[in-house]
Amino acid sequence: MNTRDALQVPLDELRTPLRGRHTSLGPTLASSAARRLPSVAHMKRAGFTLIELLTVVAIIGLLAVIAIPQLTSIKDRARVAAMKSDLRNLVTIEETYFAQNLKYATDLGTAYSVSAGNTMPTITLIGDGWTATMSSASTGLVCAIFMGSTPARPAVKEGAPACEKTGSSTVTP
Description:
single chain; alpha+beta; five-stranded antiparallel sheet
């Protein structure tokens, strides 16, 4: 009788005392507690090994190293897009005001508002139009737009907002 067969002893034999039975069980399986233990070959593995856990942590760390700078870049691009959108909206409001009053305004009151997190642009009237600049401390960018013949740096095309880093010559159209 092998060890596996010894573990599958019928219940009536387990109830009889060991002295009265003739068994081929070795001294390791002599007690009833030892007979109830499953063999090592039949044990099911539960949980994770330390190597598996360290591998998962390393993979998550690597993904974080790659993803965090990308998320920062996406947030900065979203802020720039919001500033440009606010300046395009300013063109629409200013031109509507001009059509009604035959002049441009430096203060549009409640007719114009900016996106959350942006500051109101500085509007300057020029001979045949206006310029507007908007800056963002969080991105370090200055965006500008103009209508008329006098460009406002960094904008070079009338009605098209452009941005640049403060103290930089790189323009983002």
